[in-house]
Write a structure and sequence with these properties.
Blueprint (H helix, E strand, L loop, with lengths): L4 E3 L4 H7 L7 E4 L5 H6 L7 E4 L9 E4 L2 E5 L4 H6 L1 H6 L1 H7 L5 H6 L2 H6 L7 H7 L3 E6 L2 E6 L4 E3 L2 E2 L5 E8 L6 E8 L7 E12 L2 E10 L6 E2 L1 H7 L1 E2 L2 H14 L10 H21 L2
Parallel strand pairs: 1-3, 2-3
Antiparallel strand pairs: 4-5, 5-10, 6-7, 6-10, 8-9, 11-12, 12-13, 13-14, 13-15
Helix pairs in contact: 9-10, 10-11
Length: 283
């Protein structure tokens, strides 16, 4: 790695002040699980890293007015073990059990998992399905962005170069049920070829409203409005298959090392129906 300066601010305001919208070689770093690999590979050569590790206001988990608020530098393993998270959105807890491995989860952070914008990450589609949003701080002030609008493309976000994710907010779910399924070509914690998150509001075995998000097989995680509409109504096997068919036609799929677009289309067809069925049976 090439030499670089390391800054260790103590406050969020100080950290934002160290960033420069016109200098892409200055980057924030939290857990660094992805950034350090990029640096070792020579893909990224920073002039300065702004460490967020000493900013205490970014490490918290709380329920405020019925919403789950998680500080951006909260490690994924802490999120996984949190009773507040398990009660508020158990699908997050279940998802983290197979996200990479415990060594990574001990270091990787919530904000980093979102800001890195790797479409293969497990958490973004789940958070989109739950209607989550992030609070962002920058030189121009604070703004709130739905997680669904955070991703601009492959490893790209809508964040400015001088903006930081400060927290993530998951709204009250009001009885909605959710599930996340992924397909890996090797071990369960490997990069998925497809991830599908589904959140539903149901009346008995009938789906009143659905949020269906696909990732990994696409350039960025995104909702499938056509499949969501097709999923509404009596949730028998035929209806769930129709939702899967609609999703397969709607999703804009890519070919990569995890499989061809044609292969992933068949996965979407099957796994959207399975994710809806899993959400119906979730607690």
């Amino acid at each position: 790695m090439t030499p670089f300066e390391l800054a260790e601010p103590k406050t969020l305001k100080e950290a934002v002040g160290l960033l420069d919208a016109d200098d892409p070689t200055i980057r924030p770093i939290a857990g660094g699980t992805a950034l350090m690999l990029m640096m070792k590979a020579g893909v990224f050569r920073p002039s300065k890293l702004v460490s967020l590790g000493a900013i205490k206001e970014l490490t918290s988990i709380a329920i405020v007015n019925g919403e789950l608020i998680v500080g951006a530098t909260t490690p994924l393993a802490v999120l996984e073990r949190s009773e507040a998270v398990r009660k508020h959105a158990p699908v997050i807890t279940r998802t983290l059990h197979t996200l990479s491995n415990i060594r990574v989860r001990n270091v990787a952070t919530v904000g980093g998992a979102l800001a890195h914008a790797d479409p293969h990450m497990d958490l973004p589609p789940v958070l989109i399905a739950l209607g989550a949003r992030v609070v962002v701080h920058g030189r121009e002030g604070e703004r709130t962005i739905p997680v669904a609008d955070l991703f601009a493309g492959y490893f790209e976000t809508t964040l400015a170069k001088d903006e930081l994710i400060a927290s993530m907010i998951v709204p009250a779910q009001d009885g909605r049920r959710a599930a996340y399924l992924k397909v890996t070509t090797r071990a369960v914690h490997d990069w998925p070829a497809l991830g599908v998150a589904a959140s539903i509001a149901a009346d008995g075995n009938a789906i009143k409203d659905a949020s269906i998000v696909v990732s990994a097989a696409t350039e960025k995680p995104g909702r499938l409005a056509g499949a969501e509409k097709a999923a509404q109504g009596a949730a028998d096997d035929a209806a769930l298959r129709r939702a899967g068919e609609a999703a397969a036609e709607e999703a804009e799929l890519i070919t990569d090392g995890q499989g061809s677009a044609a292969y992933k289309k068949e996965l979407v067809r099957v796994y959207v129906a399975r994710a809806l069925r899993a959400a119906l049976g979730a607690k």
